[in-house]
Amino acid sequence: MTARKGLLARVAIDHEALLDFKDVSRTSINTHRTVTRLLAEFAVIELRGPNDQRAVYGAVDQLSTDMKTLWSKLFGGLDTFNRLRLGEREEAIHNILEQGDLPTDIRAHLNLLIVGEQVAQQRKVPLSGYAEKPGEPELSVADSVDNCATIERVRALRALGNYPEGTFRRKIWSEVFAVLAELSIDVTLLDGFFLMHALEKKPAHRDHAEWLIRNLDNTLMPGSSLRVLCYLPKGVGQAEAEKTLREMISPIIGGGNLLQVTVVLAPQDAIQHPHNRHVRFSCGLAISTEEGFDRFDKETITGIDGFTWKVWRPEMLRQLTKRENVYLTRPDRMEFKIHPVLAS
Fold first, then answer.
1. What separation, in Å, do the N-terminal and C-terminal C-alpha atoms of the chain show?
2. The model scores a pTM over 0.70
3. C-alpha–C-alpha distance, residues 187 and 293, integer Å
4. Which residues of 130-141 are buried (b: 16+ CB within 10 A; e: fewer)?
5. CATH of the domain spanning 161-338
6. What is the rounded CA–CA span in Å between residue 296 and residue 209?
7. Distance CA 322, CA 314 (A)
8. How deeply is 74 buried, as exposed, middle or buried, from its count of CB atoms within 10 A (0-12, 13-18, 19+)?
9. Which of 139, 122, 7, 22 is nearest to 71 (CA)?
10. Strand order in the sheet with 186-190
11. For residue range 15-70, what is the model confidence (pLDDT) as tens digits?
C-alpha cells in the first residue's frame, strides 16, 4: 500500500535536512525560502510524534533569525488549516531513516521525505538530489525539493484543470477531492442546481448529490459538517423541499463522519446568483467548476466539455465566501439542518 496522490503531498522532514543549510549564506537562505514556500503551497507536514516534533523544532531554533521566521510562519499557517499533523509514534524520522527498511505506516502514509545529506548518501540518492522507489515515499535533499517528482506531480495535477468526457468520477474524487476531505472538518458546497434533480423530481436517474455527499461522509474527519447552498425551484414549497431533502440526505450520512448537513435554499428568481460552483474545504483549499457538480451523475463524465476545475488557495478564498454570502444574506432564504438517522 502506498500513500494517496492528490492536490496536497504528505511530507515528513528529517531535522538534519534543515541543519545542512544553517550557515548564513545566500544558498542557505534561498534553500529555506524555497522549501517553506513549496510546503506552504503543496504540502501537509507530518510530524511522526513528540520526539520528531522536538527534533524538527529544535533544528529550526538553531537557524538564523530570518530562516527561523520562515519556518515559524509556515508552521503557524499550516496549523490553521490542519495541515501540520502530529502523530503518536515514538521514533523520530531521522532515526528511522538511519535504519533499514521503512516501516509500513511510513510507506502507506507519506509521499515525500526531505532528508539530510548523510541519509541521502546512505540510501544512495543520486546527484539530482531526489529518488523514488516503488512502494516508498520519495527522498529529496532540501535544495532539490523544487524539482522532485512529488512536487512536480502536484503541480501537474493542479495545472490539469479538466477531465475529459469518459473519465471515471471515482478517479476525479481520488485525485482532486479526497486528500482535501481527509484534512477537513467543515465543507461548504455552492451549486444552485445541485439538488434540482430531487426537488423537481425529474424522471431521469441522477445521483450526483447522493454520490458526492456519501463520499464526503466517508472521507471527512469525524464529527464534520457540510453546508449546501442551492436554489429553491419555482413552484416548490418550502415544507415540501425540506421533507424531500431530509428523506434523501439523512440515510446517506448514517454511517460515516458527517454529523450535520445544513441546507440553504434561495428562491430561483431574477436576483443574480453566482454562476460558477465551488466546494470549499476547511483545510484551506477549494475547488471550483463551471459545469457544475451534476457532471458526477453517472459513473463516467458525460458532455463534450468534460469536468473543468480550478484550485483556490487560502489567500483567494475571500472571493468564494463573498459568493456564498449571496445565498446566506437573502432574507427570503430557507435554512434547515439534517442529522444522521440513528440506528435503532
1. 36
2. yes
3. 15
4. bbeeeebbbbbb
5. 3.30.870.30
6. 8
7. 14
8. buried
9. 22
10. 162-163, 307-312, 286-289, 277-281, 186-190, 224-232, 258-267, 334-338
11. 999 999 999 999 999 999 999 999 999 999 999 999 999 999 999 999 999 999 99
Q: Residue ranges per domain, the chain?
A: 9-155, 161-338
Would you say the C-alpha torsion 72, 77, 79, 85 has a positive or negative sign?
Answer: negative
C-alpha distances in Å from residue 63, one per residue of 73, 229, 280, 322: 14, 47, 36, 40
Quote the strand ranges of 67-161, DSSP E: 84-86, 112-115, 130-131, 138-141
Output helix, strand, coil percentages for the chain, rounded to the nearest 5.
Answer: 40, 20, 35
Amino acid at 185: I
Cell 480550478 appears where?
A: 310
Rounded Cα distance, 24 and 83, in Å: 29
- In the predicted structure, residue 343 carries a pLDDT above the cut 60: no
